[in-house]
Design goal:
mainly alpha; two-stranded antiparallel sheet; 2 strands; 2% strand
Length: 257
């Protein structure tokens, strides 16, 4: 059986070779080239006894956005690529027969119902047709869930990356797949009211401050109808512990995002 060159490369963990590849091709091209290895086949499992097993997010897309150090980027590629979970990323179909209103309705429905086969199609079509409408909807969806999942930051990363490069289907798929497949809990948001609140920033840890800094940039960029409810929901989540992935925290610490 013919060996998979990329799998072998990831297993060898040749740091110097990887650094040279990143310098030669650029970090986002490398991020795209190895996108088959970032996503999980499933994030949520339950056995016959009712024991729940949930995997966490893969921070590599965020790390590649915020970090420019080639050595660290090479380290991240080896650390956060899962050869055993390799998946084939097929070309995403278009839905050019649908209008924007229908695309938005279908995208939100398939995201919340975890239907990746359809969400990726509606997401791609809406993104290519109306980027502003796409990101507004994706932020609306992401803010409804638990901030620990960092869905808001992944949407932000997608927006920032595509401000720097042309549309890349591998990077796009990786983020849409995570947003769709990772099950969220909307109970806190559902019980939040439309009210003006003030975040208790002085008593927040560094992780919460980093997250909130990005959130404020998003609210300044988009006029989201339920912004107050999103803030109330986030305020309630922040009454509990909140920690970022350590590599991500190290990259973002003191950084002007």
């Amino acid at each position: 059986m013919k060996k998979d060159v990329k799998v072998e490369f990831l297993k060898e963990k040749n740091l110097n070779t990887c650094i040279e590849l990143i310098k030669e091709k650029g970090k986002f091209n490398i991020l795209s080239d190895y996108a088959n290895f970032y996503d999980r086949r499933t994030y949520f499992k339950v056995n016959e006894n009712g024991d729940i097993f949930q995997k966490t997010y893969n921070p590599i897309t965020l790390l590649y956005l915020f970090c420019d150090d080639e050595k660290k980027l090479a380290d991240y590629l080896f650390k956060y690529s899962y050869a055993e979970e390799k998946q084939n990323i097929k070309k995403i179909d278009r839905a050019s027969n649908l209008d924007v209103k229908t695309l938005k309705k279908n995208l939100m429905k398939t995201l919340t119902n975890s239907h990746l086969d359809f969400s990726k199609i509606f997401a791609k079509e809406l993104f290519l047709r109306d980027k502003k409408a796409f990101f507004e909807l994706m932020y609306n969806f992401s803010f409804m869930g638990n901030p620990k999942d960092l869905k808001v930051l992944f949407v932000y990363a997608l927006e920032e990356i595509f401000n720097q490069i042309d549309y890349d289907e591998n990077i796009f798929y990786t983020i849409i797949a995570y947003l769709t497949k990772f099950r969220d809990d909307y109970s806190v948001y559902m019980n939040s009211i439309d009210d003006n609140i003030k975040f208790d920033i002085d008593n927040y840890n560094e992780d919460k401050k980093i997250y909130l800094n990005i959130v404020e940039k998003i609210f300044a960029r988009y006029n989201l109808k339920n912004e107050n409810k999103f803030k109330v929901s986030l305020y309630r989540y922040f009454e509990n512990d909140f920690e970022l992935n350590q590599d991500l925290k190290d990259v973002l610490k003191g950084k002007d995002i």
